[in-house]
Amino acid sequence: MKTQSQARRVYYASRGLSRKQRQRRSLVLLALTVCALFGSWASIGTLAEPGTASLGVKFVEWVRGNGGASFVAFLENTWYSLNTPPVGGKPPKGALQPTADKGAAGAISSNAIHLPKPAPIKPFVNPPLPNEGKWSAEGPLVKGIPSLYVTLMRPDPIHTSLVAGVAWMDPHLVNFLQFAGAQEPPGGQHWPYMSPIPSGMANQLVAAFNSGFRMQDANGGYYAYGQTAVPLRNGAASFVIYQNGTPNIVTWNSGSKVPSSIAVVRQNLIPLISNGKINPLVNSTNFALWGATVGNQLLVWRSGVGVTKNGALIYASGPGLSVSSLANLLKRAGAVSAMEMDINSDWTNFFYFNHQIGQPASPSNGYRLVYNMLRPPLRYFEGTARDFVVAEARTTPLKGKLLAAQ
Fold first, then answer.
1. Which terminal residue of the chain, N or C, has fewer Cβ atoms less than 10 Å from its own Cβ?
2. What's the CA angle centered on 233, arms 227 and 238, to 5 degrees?
């Protein structure tokens, strides 16, 4: 007599299902069962949440925030273990070209103070493909000068079909703002800048990108424009915006006392890069250091920000990134200080807008940094649960100076 497990194997074999297919089917069935149990009381709340995320994503976030974090972590880890990035191969045609159909808009001038164009990034894969690591001027011209450059490249020599994107922005020309989402940060305070991006800011919009983890997972605090939503933690990697709108990445050491020169402190985990050196803990198997929901050894969508020696802000994101490969990508792009931001495909977003200053940015002239980023440029023009960062054109000259990365 066959055992139950033997009978299952015979059944699946008769239907031509491989072991991996059987595992996926079991995972889906488990998820559907749990969804059915939770759904009867969660559906109204998840449908009411703002943003372009699918109902499934909203439901997972609801489960995660209502005592189901361990179950969500199990599902995510199982899913990623069954869907590891392919080894070798080539990117799809056009994947290494910026997704915009044109570059920076407007008449080029050179009268304003600005940083020099960034040097090309040395590719990780040899031989490189055309355009790999070469910068393209995108977004609106600010004072007649490109304020945003983007490049696309393969982030490691093993998973050669994957493409990551890097964006470079000049704080002499761009002002940074921290926007609160409907649920992040928690606490219900009224913030000067809140989702969605208002129509009055569209004429000056350069780019918008994701912030860090939900605060309950960030292992850090949140301070913005005179209010504290979550207490700041010493030692935390911190995205700082100064009162003059310039950014920095610092390791926080001021406790709850925020210097008057600082407008925003958004913390997330521990530093990726400090003083030009990659944190050796990027290779740690302690999942809590870099995101408890997805283990460090798993290759997933990740994002991070860094600052260069001359004060430019760098954003990097892509699929199939380990913490180590994200850190290497930021360092090779010139970051001397850097931190991880959010992870997973639903939350890693960078959009830039090819329009002329004075004419409105919109989803129709917005572009993803990487061709296969999941969410559309509409995301930050409508209500969203998560906080995010906006880069807008400076309307007045920078007051003060760019502070060196710490």
1. N
2. 75
> What interhelical angle do 19-48 and 55-65 show, nearest 10?
80
- In this structure, what DSSP letter does residue 379 have? G
* Higher-scoring residue by pLDDT: 385, 107: 385
CB atoms within 10 A of CB 130: 7
Q: Select from 371, 383, 329 the least CA-distant residue to 49.
A: 383
pTM for this entry:
0.84
Express as a percent the part of the chain with pLDDT over 70: 73
Q: Which two tokens stand for residue 99?
A: 């997704």
Strand order in the sheet with 262-267: 227-230, 222-224, 262-267, 237-242, 247-251
Give per-residue pLDDT as tens, 339-371.
999 998 889 999 999 999 999 999 999 999 999
Instruction: Mark residue 67 as left, alpha or beta (left: phi above 0; alpha: psi -120 to 50; beta: remaining).
Output: left
Domain edges within the chain: 4-82, 136-393
DSSP string covering 9-61, please?
Answer: HHHHHHTT--HHHHHHHHHHHHHHHHHHHHHHHHHHHHHHS-SS--HHHHHHH
- Structural tokens at position 34: 């749990």
Rg (CA), the chain: 22
Give Dmax over CA atoms of the chain in angstroms: 86
The residues, any chain, with a CB within 8 Å of residue 133's CB and separated by 6 or more, are 120, 121, 122, 123, 151, 153
Token pair, residue 243, equals 């009162």
